């Protein structure tokens, strides 16, 4: 992808229309408006904390759950993406 | 479990319908709407503080009491879980 | 006790109905609704500050005065307790 | 005194009814409701900052001026006291 | 350029009237009022964090996406620019 | 003076009724209600930052300009003083 | 100048009535009420961060752009000045 996130930001592609994902996670009714699961597309180089760069804990291809109502939507070559902070990712879906 | 929490997050399975748990804890009336006791299902790798990773102080299988009105609800394979921050756990129930 | 507080949390048993305690402390009228004196039942392992664990400054059996309108009430084997942060304890009653 | 303040807390005995104290300080009209001068009765062991304990800069017997509308009132053996943070003391009255 | 940003500030020239940029990024409808893509014109020397200067992660000529409703508009020799903080840049567009 | 400020506090004597001071500073109209210039009477020992005591940058006798609407007024032997934080001093008037 | 700013404060002389300055910067209409360009008159010794004094990055004579609606106005020998924090300077105008 031609977009490189800065610092600890993460670009994700989220699943907007599915109620139940392939891996079996169903988000509860109250969160139906905007699905919270997504695939990581690109990650930044990490956040500098106390003079050390702390790398982002996810990598492209990871499936993640993130807090909804977070991040900035962008469109790239006809596709919608979301740019979120790494801290807004709450869990990784392991297969 | 196929969900791996990030950082200091903890996935718990809470007890929604019991008034009195096996270990004898009864939550007071004012907190009846949402039970505060839960079992730890999965924990993240810890939070980075001052350049050191501080591990989460609970482990899968622990029974914990946590502040209600906290965390994010998720559904996984038909079961409801709650993802909370380790800091929101106030006590561990020892048997 | 089977409850182990996490971090710098402290479980106390407070005195709800007495106006004057054995040690002679009377709380002023404006704080009559909820007595501020209590006995420490269990303490957590301490808070991590700048990479070092700072132990809680009170121990089980201590009588303490704490800021009212703080903490989380729990019931355990028919008794009510309060879980507070160690920082909310303002003084220890020495005999 | 049988009360030992925790951390950087200070127990003071304030002068409620005097308009002019022995040492000659008169508080301006706008602060008449609650006198800001007091005598230090007991001090805590200090606050931990960056891993070091910073001792409280006043000692029992000191006369101090403190910001009004601060602290927690307690009654002990029929006397009223105020528990304040050491940071709320703005000046010491030297004789 | 004769303007030198201070600290971690970045001067950018943004694209106000295009809906679709050359590199193919289209911002979603809700952000049409002010385009979020821009070219970096000048960067400051960096922010001092914990006694070390952390350099800005973008350089003049970079195309960046930044959070809208941020920064200060200035006019220089008839052209409008925006001065933003480096932290408000969320991604770099790689060609 | 018999008052010793604590930490980084500074006791100043301000000029309430003059529009133009001896050194030629006139405060603009919008700040006429309370003159911002004062003479330093006493200073505290300094603030502890990162384990080191940072001394106050002014000394008794200095004429200073400080932000209005700050500090605590006290009366001492018939005179009004103001206790401010050293950080609220914005400039020293050099003769 | 007889005024010495404290810490990281900067005294500037701003241009109130010009729409277009000599160096060619025109502030956009929305900022016409108070011009954002100024000349640095005097600078403080710097801010103490993590025990080290960080010097101010501008010097007397520099022309700077600063965020409007910031700082404190003072009058000195018939001239108006503005005292701002060094952090409120966003760019230096190089000739």
TrEMBL record, chains A, B, C, D, E, F, G:
The membrane spanning regions, by residue number, are none
Task: Quote the SUPFAM superfamilies the UniProt record gives.
Answer: GroES-like (SSF50129)
Entries under Pfam families matching the protein: Cpn10 (PF00166)
Superkingdom of source:
Bacteria
Cellular location of this protein? Cytoplasm
GO molecular function term, any single one:
ATP binding
Alphabetically list the UniProt keywords: Chaperone, Cytoplasm
- Gene Ontology cellular-component terms listed: cytoplasm
- Chief localisation class: cytoplasm
The record's similarity note reads:
Belongs to the GroES chaperonin family.
Tell me, in a sentence or two, what this protein's role is. Answer: Together with the chaperonin GroEL, plays an essential role in assisting protein folding. The GroEL-GroES system forms a nano-cage that allows encapsulation of the non-native substrate proteins and provides a physical environment optimized to promote and accelerate protein folding. GroES binds to the apical surface of the GroEL ring, thereby capping the opening of the GroEL channel.
Against NCBIfam families, the record matches this protein to: PRK00364.2-2, PRK00364.2-4, PRK00364.2-5
Record's subunit section: Heptamer of 7 subunits arranged in a ring. Interacts with the chaperonin GroEL.
Put simply, this protein is called Co-chaperonin GroES
